[in-house]
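thought: user wants a sequence for this fold. calling inverse folding tool.
action: design(structure=
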């Protein structure tokens, strides 16, 4: 049984941030990761031309304050500052249709209404409560909620939305956000392909039981996604029912990206966006030519993405072809070929994409983040009150947990 000061469970953005802080402090620690790679929901793969494709996080949200921006700059990694297509009305070809213009106005008005209501309200109704009666674009409002929160408005806490802080500045890393995060953890001590099954914190030391043996530690940082905590995929002894129930109040929404090779790429304007439909919730958002590349990134969310995941990978491609055929013709759509897709709900070590507080459950984030006995710490995007669902939120919670764990180790001699 190996013995460490701190064991970090999970090598995603939070676990890597914690590991780096522990390393800088000279602590004895080990990161234990179930997958055969680090990064978790930050996941870059090579595209057909070798250029990076982000199947998980892609945007440095609140970029000018985002710690990953500084990490990129310090590492000499180039940052792309092109504003994202959702901040402008820019379609890939021709002019937006009158319905697209009206739908965009409806989205903006709804967002403002929701922000106002959320900031001043004392109750925590579902966000769907604020859809104006008879709203013709109610389907699109729900679709956008599935892209933003991973779930439909009826499942979204307005209080949680109001707490989210975003500067509105969004940058990207052409070589991949996932690659940047994994690069930050490249020289950390990580044991890959080692799922943690049980954490026994009943004795003076904590026993972390994995498939390849038990590790002991004086402090442990758990960074796994809420879907896994709620399903009690790691057993705690003594049990931690408050953590399981807080995680259940913060379920993982679902967002999946499908990349398609774009035929006749030069005839489409780079960095533009189109909704498959502005009248349905069951639709995708298509980002044309990200970084100017001959690709389309199709974004699917919520219950619709779950449905497609169950139907298999081809269902995503069929849906994209059908929606884009309606706009650019059947011949064009036939020539769209899939390049990469990741199904995050089916992913054994995630179970979804990013957390969303159910109505009435915004305070579960603080409950989840509270340490147990000042030696068992929780981190990960869902623990962030102001930057949840993001890679920088995960980073900040990882740093906070590392500071707590270091204090725990110092105050508890072996
Ligand atoms: C499609 C998509 C798009 C996104 N877009 C953005 C974006 O543009 N910008 C942004 O900021 N964020 C975005 N996100 C969210 C962002 O990727 C996540 O919030 C962040 O990466 C979460 O990091 P984490 O460390 O909290 O969790 P994770 O990355 O899930 O890390 C937890 C780690 O724990 C491991 N693990 C799980 N169970 C066990 C176990 N039993 N034993 C050992 N290890 C275990 C997992 O394999 C994983 O590596 C997106 C996510 C997705 C899926």
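)
observation: tool returned 414 residues.
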């Amino acid at each position: 049984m190996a013995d460490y000061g701190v064991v970090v469970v999970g090598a995603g953005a939070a676990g890597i941030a914690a590991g780096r802080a522990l390393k800088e402090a000279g602590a004895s620690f080990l990161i234990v990761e179930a997958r055969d790679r680090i990064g978790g929901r930050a996941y870059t793969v090579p595209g057909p031309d070798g250029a990076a494709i982000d199947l998980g996080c892609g945007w440095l949200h609140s970029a000018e304050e985002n710690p990953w921006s500084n990490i990129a700059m310090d590492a000499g990694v180039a940052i792309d500052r092109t504003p994202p297509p959702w901040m402008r009305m820019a379609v890939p070809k021709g002019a937006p249709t009158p319905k697209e213009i009206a739908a965009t106005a409806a989205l903006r008005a709804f967002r403002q209404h929701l922000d106002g209501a959320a900031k001043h309200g004392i109750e925590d109704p579902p966000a769907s409560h604020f859809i104006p009666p008879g709203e013709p674009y109610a389907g699109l409002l729900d679709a956008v909620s599935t892209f933003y929160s991973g779930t439909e408005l009826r499942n979204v806490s307005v209080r949680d939305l109001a707490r989210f802080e975003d500067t509105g500045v969004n940058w990207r890393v052409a070589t991949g956000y996932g690659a940047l995060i994994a690069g930050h953890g490249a020289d950390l001590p990580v044991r890959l392909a080692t799922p943690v099954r049980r954490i026994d914190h009943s004795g003076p030391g904590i026993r972390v039981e994995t498939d390849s043996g038990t590790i002991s530690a004086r402090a442990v940082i758990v960074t796994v996604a809420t879907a896994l905590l709620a399903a009690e995929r790691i057993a705690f002894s003594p049990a931690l029912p408050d953590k399981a129930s807080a995680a259940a109040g913060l379920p993982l929404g679902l967002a999946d990206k499908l990349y398609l090779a774009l035929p006749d790429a030069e005839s489409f304007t780079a960095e533009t966006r189109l909704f498959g439909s502005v009248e349905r919730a069951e639709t995708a958002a298509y980002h044309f030519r990200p970084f100017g590349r001959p690709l389309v990134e199709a974004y699917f969310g919520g219950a619709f993405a779950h449905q497609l995941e169950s139907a298999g990978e081809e269902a995503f491609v069929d849906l994209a072809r059908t929606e884009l055929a309606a706009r650019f013709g059947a011949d064009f759509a036939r020539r769209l070929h899939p390049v990469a897709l990741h199904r995050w709900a089916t992913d054994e070590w995630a179970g979804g994409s990013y957390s969303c507080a159910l109505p009435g459950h915004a305070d579960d984030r603080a409950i989840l983040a509270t340490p147990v006995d000042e030696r068992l710490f929780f981190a990960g995007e869902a623990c962030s009150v102001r930057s949840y669902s993001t890679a920088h939120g995960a980073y900040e919670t990882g740093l906070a947990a590392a500071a707590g764990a270091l204090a725990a180790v110092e105050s508890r001699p072996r």
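thought: summarizing for user.
answer: Here is the designed sequence. The chain has two domains: 2-45+59-77+172-251+362-411, 85-169+255-341.
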